[in-house]
Amino acid sequence: MSLRDQLLKAGLVSKKQAQKTEAANRKQTHDSKKNKELADKLNDEKQSEIHKIEEEKNTRRELDRELNRQRDLLMSQRESYYRSLQILNSKSLNDRSASECYFFAEGKKIRKVMVNSWQREMLARGKMGIGKPHSEIDEFVIIPLTAARVLNDIYPQKLITLHSEIDDTEELEDGF
Fold first, then answer.
1. Using CA atoms, how far apart are residues 140 and 106, in angstroms rounded to an integer?
2. Where is the region Disordered (predicted)?
3. What is the pLDDT of residues 123-136, one digit of tens each?
4. Fewer Cβ neighbours under 10 Å: the N or C end of the chain?
5. Residue 2, class by beta-carbon neighbours within 10 Å (0-12 exposed, 13-18 middle, 19+ buried)?
């Protein structure tokens, strides 16, 4: 079924309009065959229109790719942020009964977190790290080394302190 028949069936054009358009197309084709200049002109117009449409498609495609890339980047950043929060909340080793203060640097400020003696030793040996779940709130979370390394990989802004790890075997060898 041709486009003409479809338009007629849908009632978008009348039979008279369809015949008129068909006659105009036939006349234009006939004239173009007769007149080579007119044919070349029509062909050039068609080619320039096709070229313009292709350029618009390519531009739109590039814009869509860029928007998709930006959206994917934003999704990845959000995923990393929420995953880091999940790590900080689930791996927290904070002790409410801790009585010692552990001081550390956050940027240019000196901060403190309450720890017990074992946590202080592990922080100093690089076996634990300190993270900050929310940048607006002065709350610090003590996390184990493996969680600190993962946090450093996925969202390093949340990891405040992680000292270089001290090997326990070196200390034992020095002591004997």
1. 11
2. 1-61
3. 999 999 999 999 88
4. C
5. exposed
The token duo for 26 is 């036939």
Half-sphere exposure of 106 (CA within 13 A, CB side): 18
Q: For residue 59, what are its two tokens?
A: 């531009």
pLDDT score at 86:
95
Distance CA 35, CA 43 (A): 12
d(CA 168, CA 145): 14
Confidence of residue 176 (pLDDT cuts 50, 70, 90): very low
Neighbour-count burial of 152, counting CB atoms closer than 10 A to its CB (0-12 exposed, 13-18 middle, 19+ buried) = middle
The tokens describing 11, both together, are 């009632």
How many CB atoms lie under 10 A from the CB of residue 25? 10
